[in-house]
Amino acid sequence: MLKNNSIYILLLVVLLAIVYMLGIPSRKPHIDDAWLAEHSYWLLHDGLAKSKLMSGIGGSEERLILHHKIFTIQGAIIIAFFGFSLQALKSVSLFYLLLTALLLFITRHNTALFNAKNTWKAALFILFLNPLIYEFSFVYRPETMLMFIGFFSFLSLSSALKGNRPKLFSWIGGLLAGLALTTHLNGSIFIAAG
User: Fold this and answer.
1) How far apart are CA 98 and CA 163, in angstroms?
2) In whole angstroms, how large is the CA radius of gyration of the chain?
């Protein structure tokens, strides 16, 4: 059962999430919203990721070889369900921020990560104190997705090292590290850290 302090922290995070979501429609479009959403749009409609916005640069108007593949596929799915909506696409990044906060909350009793009972609250505070979180949580970019997948990979590998079904959790951690790479090239750090 949650203690009162934990309930207050959880309610604060939920309240912040609601305020953030209510603010999405009034947010100004970011150049990456258009650029990365276009990749997903063309993938859905033509079966290939391409960019007419960057026409003439490396043949991008015909086909993109390098792009955030899993993120692009996910965007195509969002567009298929909700249409080509700026708010729907911007919500993807916020969704992964909330999943990361939830994962942090769920693992708060993990003594290998949090040796004092309030350490997870400090980690949550640092997460929400970082100004880049506010920027990338409202832009259709893969950074928050990468953060979630990387943290989940780390937790899986941590469970494997503790002897808690090591083969299964090692496999899950490796799979998530590979997914992190297909989300963003910066995800290669999770494979290297292995």
Assistant:
1) 29
2) 18
Per the confidence metrics, is the pTM higher than 0.90? no
With beta carbons less than 8 A apart as the criterion, state whether 140 and 93 touch: yes
Q: In Å, how far are 79, 137, 144, 147, 149 from 96, measured between CA atoms?
A: 17, 8, 6, 8, 9
* pLDDT by residue, tens only, the chain of 194 residues: 445 667 777 787 788 778 777 776 777 888 888 888 999 999 999 998 888 888 888 887 888 777 888 999 999 999 999 999 888 998 899 899 989 988 988 887 776 777 777 777 788 888 888 888 878 888 899 999 999 999 999 999 988 988 878 999 999 999 999 999 999 888 899 888 86
Residues shown for the chain: 194
3-state helix/strand/coil string of the chain? CCCHHHHHHHHHHHHHHHHHHHHHHHCCCCHHHHHHHHHHHHHHHHCCCCCCCCCCCCCCCCCCCCCCHHHHHHHHHHHHHHCCCHHHHHHHHHHHHHHHHHHHHHHHHCCCCCCCCCHHHHHHHHHHHCHHHHHHCCCCCCHHHHHHHHHHHHHHHHHHHCCCCHHHHHHHHHHHHHHHHHHCHHHHHHHHHC
